[in-house]
Amino acid sequence: MTYSQSFMLAHTMAVMKLKSEASKLHLSYLWWVIEPLLFVAVFYVVFEVLLGRGGENFIVFLMCGKIPFLWLSKTVNSGANALVQGKPLMAQRDFPKYVFPLAQIQENLYKQWAVFAILLLFLMLFGFMPTLYWLWLPVLIIVNYLLLVLLTLLAALCVAYIPDMRMVVQMGTMFLMFSSGIFWDIRNITSIEMQELLLALNPLAFLIDAYRQVLMYGNTPDLEHLSWILIISLTCLLLFIGLYQKLSYKIARRLLS
Amino acid sequence: MNQPIAIQARDICVTYQLGSVFRQQLVHHALNSISFEVKAGENFGVLGRNGCGKSTLLRLLAGVVKPDSGTLIVNNINSRHLMTLGLGFDNELTGRDNALLSMMMQGLKKKDAQSRLDEIETFSELDKFFRQPVRTYSAGMRARLGFAVAIQAKTELLLLDETLSVGDQAFKQKAEKVMLERLKGQQTVVFVSHNAEQVNKLCDHCIWIEQGEIKAAGDTKSVSKLYREFMNKLNS
């Protein structure tokens, strides 16, 4: 099976899943929009009404962090089980195993468009009008996507070999939530070294800050840092695909015995 | 018949190790030193009771897993298809979607797969259920869908897992007829069953596997006779 065929297969699986999921709910595809709106409503109640925190822009600030994070954590957590769930299909014939996590990744990606649309809508509602800097958004989304592809491929492989890793993956995404500057501004860390260390070690923290710089503050993201993340992610991606190919029979044996 | 050899298995062993990393609970020799040859275009039978290692052997031949030791050589075969009914379907997806995915997984392009859907719909006789989730199907309906999907695959090596007992009487006859046509054709077929009669009807040569080891091999008549005697002894 060629790479384009495998990708097409994952894409088709994702579209079918979305279709069947939507057909089970009364409000169907509307949930793609309702779900993120409900998230915003929850944030609003907790942070504006209950805590009275952060002033008028806090909601938007929060959304810029929470939305990319939710995309990543949902994909990684659902994708972690992808290989295990693919067992029945795996028993039938040999084909690239990364198709299973990739199908989960694509499923989440296709839902994400509506969510980003909502984000932009809220930005404008709160007076952040589109600027030329918004053109960096697709670049950030691509890097964000690459990052979650890597984490999902890694998580799925780990869970296939050691089921206990599922717990570690959950804890890991939780840790990411607190360490990526979603509820707080990473630039408020007083120690500059600490700030730089966190940004260097946690690409998601960098990305979330970059989303805010681009969408809210009209700044160009740190391009050097961004290209480093891009280069490292692409290299790791190639490595992972090679690893999946190499382990193909071993994964099947592991899961089917 | 002096046909070239399509499949050559030599001393194949497959061992499963069950349990956690810290405590191994069970070591199971699913296949132990199995050797056989299948000629191109031949209908080859594998007889054995449940749990004798048949499924493992089918997975090996389908190229899903590799043996732990021994060699398995498959000559001049570009496409193989493992036909086990009712498995490999996603319950939440419709029969149509499952059929499409199944064909794409065999390596068909999406367009080619789509063009075969009508044929599958007609053959499966699922009517309006073809566009309903598979979870709403009865066992017979699942089997019919599985058969319809499998039979359209044009493959050089067909691996059959007791698939002739499908659905109700009318569908069974239709399935058997199509199957016999296939078996007479040029393709190589490995037919796995616990039923000596079926193997006798369809295959020229066969092996009998018991607890992962070959008990007998040769022409189907004599092997199936030994198998039947063994089974009768078990039951008495």
Summarize the structure.
The complex is a heterodimer of chains A (257) and B (236). Chain A has 257 residues and is an all-alpha fold.
Question: Mind sketching the topology for me?
Answer:
The complex is a heterodimer of chains A (257) and B (236).
Chain A: H1 3-24, H2 31-50, H3 58-79, H4 82-85, H5 87-90, H6 99-125, H7 137-161, H8 165-179, H9 192-201, H10 203-215, H11 223-256
Chain B: E1 5-19, E2 24-39, E3 43-47, H1 54-62, E4 69-74, E5 80-83, H2 95-105, H3 110-115, H4 117-124, H5 139-152, E6 157-161, H6 169-184, E7 188-193, H7 196-202, E8 205-210, E9 213-219, H8 220-235
Parallel strand pairs in B: 3-7, 3-8, 5-6, 6-7
Antiparallel strand pairs in B: 1-2, 1-4, 8-9
Relevant terms:
heterodimer, A: mainly alpha, 11 helices, 76% helix, B: 236 residues, alpha/beta, Rossmann fold, six-stranded mixed beta sheet, three-stranded antiparallel beta sheet, 9 strands, 37% helix, globular
**Strands of chain B, count:** 9
Query: How much of the sequence of chain A is in beta strands?
Result: under 5%
Give the class-level CATH name of chain B: Alpha Beta
3D shape of chain A: globular
Radius of gyration of chain A: 19 Å
- The SSE order of chain B reads EEEHEEHHHHEHEHEEH
CA distance, first residue to last residue of chain A: 25 Å
Q: Can you offer a commentary on this structure?
A:
The complex is a heterodimer of chains A (257) and B (236). By secondary structure, chain A is mainly α. Chain A has one domain (3-256). Chain A has eleven helices and no strands. In chain A, helix 3 packs antiparallel against helix 6 (99-125), helix 3 (58-79) packs parallel to helix 7 and helix 6 (99-125) runs antiparallel to helix 7. Chain A is globular and about 55 Å long. Chain B is α/β, with parallel strands linked by helices and 236 residues long. Chain B is 37% helix and 30% strand. The A-B interface holds A 1, 5, 8-9, 12-13, 16-17, 19-21, 24, 88-95, 162, 249, 252-253, 256-257 and B 16-18, 21, 59, 62-66, 80-82, 84, 87-90, 92-94, 97, 100-102, 104-107, 109-110, 133.
